[in-house]
Amino acid sequence: MSxxxxxxxxxxxxxxxxxxxxWAEAMDSIRASPKFLEGVATRYPGVTMMTPAGPADPWAVExxxxxxxxxxxxxxxxxxxxxxVNPDSFHVTVGDLVAGEAYSSGCDKAISRAVKRILASLxxxxxEPDWRVAGVALFEHAVVGLLEPVSESDYLPIVELRxxxxxxxxxxxxxxxxxxxxxxxxxxxxxxxxxxxxxxxRWNDVLEASLEACRRRSATMLVRDVGIHRFNDMSAFTPLxxx
Length: 243
Description:
Elements: H1 7-17, H2 20-27, E1 36-37, E2 40-41, E3 46-50, H3 61-78, E4 82-84, E5 93-99, H4 107-122, E6 130-138, E7 142-149, H5 152-167, H6 169-173, E8 185-191, H7 197-217, E9 220-222, E10 227-231, E11 238-239
Helix pairs in contact: 2-7, 3-7
């Protein structure tokens, strides 16, 4: 059994995050993102496995259009508490690799070689996992659009890739660790502060409206062309060639 669990467990995690109870609990745990200082991205270098960012991903046009609309509504209600992500940087992280203190510039090539080997061993170039927007959730440091697989056959390739990444001994020697069970998402904004008591009802209303919009639109994307990207902070991501 994968550490990410099966699709039933994934849907259970989504259910915990979406809806009034999940949002209320999350609001109690919100903290300002350490990746920003006074609204400006701070240095936080690393490498990650992700889809192409924003307009570079032709398979995510429908999803990113919906998420940009939701982002505008959310920022309108949360303006004093969030730092919005530039939609040109929207992306789906399939697997966090190394970042922050665990990152060193010399590890890029070694990680690229290991990932190239893993992808070759999977031999699934024709697999195109189809995922849709499930709703908007609040993480400790960010507002995110959560994604759900259209079917189990769309869930399993993502989980298999992550299992290979996080169980690979050469990658583990480079500091790669599974940070948490899979929750595929697109980050829409980072928190600068949590809500006041007066904010909570307004936030709940806009989150409820976002959930209804996701259910009505049922926007989908193909999670494909996943590659290694390097970043110096959370404002830009540069694709790396596999070594």
